[in-house]
Structures are given as C-alpha cells and as structure tokens.
C-alpha cells in the first residue's frame, strides 16, 4: 500500500513537470499568460487551449513541400489558376496561405453572421485563448477582411482548430481551403444592360433558407448558382477523375443562402467533400460592398487527402516518419500515389472509469471534449481512439460515473505494457487533478 502511494506521488510529480493543466473546469490563473506563435496573451476564465495544441499551431503542413496536405492544396490551387483567367491570361484568384490562425471573436463569428447563441461558439467546440481571441475554427474567418481590402477572387488555406472526439478520422487540428468569388452586374450579365443584380434594397434575409435571397434577382441568382456548381463539379472531377459520381444536397449555413453540400460516391458510400452557397448579401454590405453578388465554398484538405492517397489514420499527417513522408516525394501532382503502411503495430487497450464530482456545478460543466483534450495533452499521438463506453448513475447517491476506453497504438513501433501503463496512470492523475473526479 505504501509503495502504491509512493508511485502515485511520483506520477503526480512527473505530471506537473511535463504537462501544465488547462481546462474549462479548473479555475484559471488570471495573472498567467500564454504564448502562441511568438504572441503573448493573458489567460482568463475562457482559456481552454492546451499545450498540445500550442505545439501543433507552430506547424504549417499545408505549405510543407511534398506533404500530402500540401499536394492536395496545390492541385486545387492549380485548378483555379487554369479555370479562371483575366483578359491577359493571368489567374484571377489570389492565394492566402500564411494568415495567422489567431483571430478575434468578431472575425470568427460576427463577420459571418453567426448568432450569439449558435452552438459553434461554445467552449466545448472551440479553442479559446481568452474572451477576445481564439484559434480559428474555419478559414472563413478571414473572408470579411479580405473583401474589405478590395479582393473579389481569392483562396484561403490554413490550419483550423476544433475540439472533437478522438478516432482515426478526427484530429483537433486540420486544414481547410476556402474560396470567394464576387461579380459586378457588368461581369455577370456582360452586354445585357436590362438585367439587374438586385430586386430591392432589403438585405435582411433569414439565413439558411432553401430559396434565393429576396434581394437578388432570379437571373443573377441562377447565373451565380450555375457558375458555382459547374466550378465545383469540375473540381471534383479534377480530384477524383472524370467518371466520379456526384450529387448536390440542400443544407444551411449562417453565411450563405441557398447552401449546398457536394457529395461524391467513394468506397461504396456517399462522401460529403465540401459546403458552398450564395453569400449572404448582408455579409457584403457590412464590409462596404454594395454592387456585387458572390459565391463561396469551403472544404477540408485531410478528407480529400485520405481518399486520394488511401490514408487510414489522420494522425499520420503529423508524423515525422520518413517511411510515411518519402512516399509523397513526387514532382508530378497528378501521380496516383497510394500510401503503403510500413507495418501494423498492435493496440493496447485500457479503460478508465471515474465518478464525477458530487458538486453539481462541477459535474454539469464536464464534457467529453474536456477529457479528450486532457488525453491528447498527456499522451499525444500515442492514442488512436477514445470511446465513451459506459455511463452509470448511482440509484441512491445520484453520483454519475463515466467509463472511457482508451486505445493506444504507436504509428512507428510496438508499445510496451510498461510505458502504456505509465501513460495511463498519468491520465488518471491528470483527470483527478484537473476535473476533481474520483478514479474507480
């Protein structure tokens, strides 16, 4: 018993030494600061970014030569370069792939007409630096500033951050590509002087509806819809081949109306690859653009890369293993590269069960994304998947118990039971310290 207690003390000391806790449940140190990409910010009660995420924010996979994420980016950029040309045969679209991922709440939400009560603003969904700044949840956060700067045709590429579950297809950092195209009356209708962009001055349309915005004329709307869908079907064929099957699905976004998702038939199922729509006119008028109509779309580069290169585990994109990276060193962007796994290492599976605090305030504030972030911060990419496998409420005390199954697997070697046990104990201690839970 004494030896067990000594081991726990050592594990706690190691935990303090190697990992600094940061959670939505812990009381923040208001005098503390956090440094991200050489910029320092004050922590406050909204800070929930972890050390693991801070480290990942220093990488730029989408601009790393021969990286699979960069290969997909280049293929999409090249498609737009050749599809949209000005009168001098130069590309119309400009590319912005080095914008800081640190954005204000106004950039990430307000500029895109996202309501204050929208679930995407929750601390359980986003990585907040403090009450004023966060790591962008989408590259769309930069749309308004680039339009305000006078740009009509542009692509934004970058890393985005969302708190999410842990499995082979989800990671807290991934990469997006966004596009915006704005057109004036003369550009849209050419010589048809009798046609107009707008029916009226009223831009107060309810977002998310299935029909055109009231302010747009039917002719303007249909021409923009046709160009948008033709462009994106062409992109799907560029990426997946001319024979790819596709379909359009109606959806809703706060910043476009109407809105659609494009799905392709891949691996015997329909896979959503992007979202798009006609830009809300009020978004444009808010940045001083009153004589243009626009379309926009956004897609995730990891999802495309996993399909094109047959990559089964999203963690591989962050691997420094030369056996993985060297497979993509091909100067031909259209080369049909298929990732070949070097080896299959066995899984190590451990469960962790704990009682949530009896204090109702603390227990109600706990969410699974808090625990997932803790696991990432302690174990890094040693963890392949975390599953909530059981929930139990004691019939007499009312205490709630949760059981998570943690699947460990290294991508490059076989893990030993000893090192997995040590990491698992670190997770137990961290959960106890950070959330006030009682390990069962």
Automatic annotation (TrEMBL):
<keyword id="KW-0496">Mitochondrion</keyword>
<keyword id="KW-0007">Acetylation</keyword>
<dbReference type="InterPro" id="IPR036690">
    <property type="entry name" value="Fdx_antiC-bd_sf"/>
</dbReference>
<comment type="function">
    <text>Is responsible for the charging of tRNA(Phe) with phenylalanine in mitochondrial translation. To a lesser extent, also catalyzes direct attachment of m-Tyr (an oxidized version of Phe) to tRNA(Phe), thereby opening the way for delivery of the misacylated tRNA to the ribosome and incorporation of ROS-damaged amino acid into proteins.</text>
</comment>
<feature type="domain" description="FDX-ACB">
    <location>
        <begin position="343"/>
        <end position="440"/>
    </location>
</feature>
<protein>
    <recommendedName>
        <fullName>Phenylalanine--tRNA ligase, mitochondrial</fullName>
        <ecNumber>6.1.1.20</ecNumber>
    </recommendedName>
</protein>
<dbReference type="InterPro" id="IPR006195">
    <property type="entry name" value="aa-tRNA-synth_II"/>
</dbReference>
<dbReference type="GO" id="GO:0000049">
    <property type="term" value="F:tRNA binding"/>
</dbReference>
<comment type="similarity">
    <text>Belongs to the class-II aminoacyl-tRNA synthetase family.</text>
</comment>
<dbReference type="GO" id="GO:0005759">
    <property type="term" value="C:mitochondrial matrix"/>
</dbReference>
<dbReference type="Pfam" id="PF03147">
    <property type="entry name" value="FDX-ACB"/>
</dbReference>
<dbReference type="GO" id="GO:0004826">
    <property type="term" value="F:phenylalanine-tRNA ligase activity"/>
</dbReference>
<feature type="domain" description="Aminoacyl-transfer RNA synthetases class-II family profile">
    <location>
        <begin position="100"/>
        <end position="336"/>
    </location>
</feature>
<dbReference type="InterPro" id="IPR002319">
    <property type="entry name" value="Phenylalanyl-tRNA_Synthase"/>
</dbReference>
<comment type="subunit">
    <text>Monomer.</text>
</comment>
<keyword id="KW-0547">Nucleotide-binding</keyword>
<dbReference type="GO" id="GO:0006432">
    <property type="term" value="P:phenylalanyl-tRNA aminoacylation"/>
</dbReference>
<keyword id="KW-0436">Ligase</keyword>
<keyword id="KW-0067">ATP-binding</keyword>
<keyword id="KW-0030">Aminoacyl-tRNA synthetase</keyword>
<keyword id="KW-0809">Transit peptide</keyword>
<dbReference type="Pfam" id="PF01409">
    <property type="entry name" value="tRNA-synt_2d"/>
</dbReference>
<dbReference type="InterPro" id="IPR005121">
    <property type="entry name" value="Fdx_antiC-bd"/>
</dbReference>
<dbReference type="InterPro" id="IPR004530">
    <property type="entry name" value="Phe-tRNA-synth_IIc_mito"/>
</dbReference>
<dbReference type="GO" id="GO:0005524">
    <property type="term" value="F:ATP binding"/>
</dbReference>
<keyword id="KW-0648">Protein biosynthesis</keyword>
<dbReference type="InterPro" id="IPR045864">
    <property type="entry name" value="aa-tRNA-synth_II/BPL/LPL"/>
</dbReference>
């Amino acid at each position: 018993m004494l030896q067990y207690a000594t081991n726990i003390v050592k594990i706690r000391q190691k935990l303090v030494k190697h990992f600094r806790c940061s959670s939505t449940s812990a009381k923040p140190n208001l005098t503390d600061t956090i440094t991200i990409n050489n910029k320092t910010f004050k922590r406050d009660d909204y800070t929930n970014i972890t050390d693991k995420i801070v480290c990942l924010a220093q990488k730029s996979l989408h601009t790393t030569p021969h990286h699979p994420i960069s290969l997909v980016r280049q293929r999409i950029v090249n498609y737009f370069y050749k599809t949209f040309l000005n009168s001098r045969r130069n590309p119309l679209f400009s590319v912005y792939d080095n914008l800081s991922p640190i954005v204000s709440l106004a950039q990430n939400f307000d500029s895109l007409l996202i309501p204050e009560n929208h679930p995407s603003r929750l601390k359980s969904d986003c990585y907040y630096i403090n009450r004023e700044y966060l790591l962008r949840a989408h590259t769309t956060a930069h749309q308004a500033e680039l339009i305000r700067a006078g740009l009509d045709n542009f692509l934004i590429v970058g890393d985005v951050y969302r708190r999410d579950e842990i499995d082979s297809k989800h990671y807290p950092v991934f990469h997006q590509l966004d596009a915006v195209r704005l057109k004036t009356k003369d550009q849209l209708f050419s010589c048809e002087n009798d046609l107009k962009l707008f029916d009226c001055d009223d831009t107060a349309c309810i977002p998310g509806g299935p029909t055109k915005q009231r302010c747009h004329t039917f002719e303007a709307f249909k021409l923009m819809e046709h160009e948008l869908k033709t462009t994106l079907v062409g992109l799907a064929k560029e990426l997946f081949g001319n024979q790819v099957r596709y379909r359009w699905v109606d959806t809703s976004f706060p910043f476009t109306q109407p809105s659609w998702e494009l799905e392709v038939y891949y691996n015997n199922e329909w896979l959503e690859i992007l979202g798009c729509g006609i830009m809300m006119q009020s978004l444009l008028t808010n940045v001083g653009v009153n004589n243009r109509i626009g379309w926009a779309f956004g897609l995730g580069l990891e999802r495309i890369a996993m399909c094109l290169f047959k990559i089964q585990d999203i963690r591989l994109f962050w691997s420094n293993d030369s056996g993985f990276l060297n497979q993509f060193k091909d100067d031909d962007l259209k080369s049909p590269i298929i990732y070949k796994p070097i080896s299959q290492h066995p899984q190590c599976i451990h469960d962790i069960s704990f009682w949530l605090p009896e204090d109702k305030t603390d227990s109600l504030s706990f969410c699974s994304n808090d625990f997932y972030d803790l696991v990432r911060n302690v174990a890094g990419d040693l963890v392949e998947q975390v599953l909530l496998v059981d929930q139990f409420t004691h019939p007499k005390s009312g205490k709630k118990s949760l059981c998570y199954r943690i699947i460990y697997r290294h991508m490059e070697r076989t893990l030993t039971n000893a090192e997995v046990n040590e990491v698992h104990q670190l997770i137990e201690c961290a959960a106890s310290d950070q959330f006030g839970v009682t390990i069962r």
